[in-house]
């Protein structure tokens, strides 16, 4: 097998590692590409391509994360991970860990860890790497990696998101939510939202967004109802589909261009959080992105009484 063939076989795993460390599709893709370039130029033949490439992509991702965190300190408004519609890496024996670890809630929790803790946690808890492999990947001793893993697990367990065990029940609840949203049904939305539900949006200052997180069942339900009809008037389509392994949707303009994603956290039969990504820089991997500013102008026009138009 050629190096190119080996690399393509391992690409899904490498992307999955990088995305969980970085929370960014574009940065993960860049890390994987940099790993391939390094593999091409590596003079020796690694004993294990999987171990070698996992080490390179992990170290690359740690370096990228350190610089990304500096940029995030000046990020305009709330920061959310780039939405991922489908995880390219699948392992039936670890399907639950893989799905939960890619959720928006889990990725935000990982933001609390240091880059080294995050890398160790991802390699150990998500992909079941042994400590000798992890030590090689992060350039620390096995004992140091075990300590990093303990600290990371403690932080994650303290705030670990818990999702409904029955995926079908979550999907059915999400279907009811999007139907109530399309119809602007205030009472139906109230029934589906948790009392302390929180709705957050991430535009990075590059698109209209909520001025601040909206908290509480009545506030969130009213906002959703207020925007539903004007969005329908300007041809916006709600396209339900999984986002980061959880129920969600892509909102598309009348030209079928994505301009917004929603991810839902569902627990105990209610929606606990709604996370909206509208920053066009984070949506480019979904296809040509709609103009959120133009949509905002059309939306505001659609909200005006007929006599004012």
TrEMBL record:
RNA polymerase sigma factor 70 region 4 type domain boundaries: 105-156
Keywords annotated in UniProt: Sigma factor, Transcription, Transcription regulation
Limits of the RNA polymerase sigma-70 region domain: 7-69
Record lineage: Bacteria, Bacillati, Actinomycetota, Actinomycetes, Micromonosporales
Pfam families xrefs: Sigma70_r2, Sigma70_r4_2
GO molecular function, one term: sigma factor activity
Protein name from the UniProt record: RNA polymerase sigma-70 factor
Species per Swiss-Prot/TrEMBL record: Actinoplanes aureus
Quaternary structure and interacting proteins, as annotated: Interacts transiently with the RNA polymerase catalytic core formed by RpoA, RpoB, RpoC and RpoZ (2 alpha, 1 beta, 1 beta' and 1 omega subunit) to form the RNA polymerase holoenzyme that can initiate transcription.
Family: Belongs to the sigma-70 factor family. ECF subfamily.
Superkingdom of origin: Bacteria
């Amino acid at each position: 097998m050629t190096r190119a063939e080996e690399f393509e076989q391992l690409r899904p795993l490498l992307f999955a590692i990088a995305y969980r460390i970085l929370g960014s599709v574009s940065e993960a893709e860049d890390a994987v590409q940099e790993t391939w370039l390094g593999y091409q130029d590596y003079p020796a033949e690694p004993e294990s391509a999987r171990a070698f490439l996992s080490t390179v992509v992990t170290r690359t991702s740690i370096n990228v994360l350190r610089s990304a965190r500096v940029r995030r300190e000046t990020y305009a408004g709330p920061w959310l991970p780039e939405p991922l519609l489908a995880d390219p890496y699948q392992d039936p024996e670890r399907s639950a860990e893989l799905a939960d670890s890619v959720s928006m809630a889990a990725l935000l929790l990982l933001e609390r860890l240091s880059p080294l803790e995050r890398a160790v946690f991802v390699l150990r808890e998500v992909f079941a790497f042994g400590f000798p492999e992890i030590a090689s990947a992060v350039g620390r001793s096995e004992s140091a990696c075990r300590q990093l893993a303990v600290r990371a697990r403690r932080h994650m367990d303290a705030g670990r998101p818990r999702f409904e065990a029955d995926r079908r029940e979550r999907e059915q609840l999400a279907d009811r939510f999007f139907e109530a949203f399309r119809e602007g049904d205030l009472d139906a939305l109230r029934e589906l939202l948790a009392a302390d539900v929180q709705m957050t949006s991430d535009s990075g200052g590059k698109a209209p967004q909520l001025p601040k997180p909206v908290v509480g069942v009545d506030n969130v339900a009213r906002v959703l109802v207020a925007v539903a009809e004007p969005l329908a008037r300007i041809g916006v389509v709600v396209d339900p589909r999984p986002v980061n392994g959880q129920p969600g949707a892509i909102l598309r303009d009348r030209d079928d261009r994505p301009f917004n994603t929603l991810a839902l956290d569902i627990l105990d039969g209610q929606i606990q959080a709604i996370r909206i990504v509208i920053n066009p820089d984070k949506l480019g991997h979904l296809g040509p992105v709609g103009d959120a500013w133009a949509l905002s102008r059309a939306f505001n026009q659609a909200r005006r009484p007929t006599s004012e138009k």
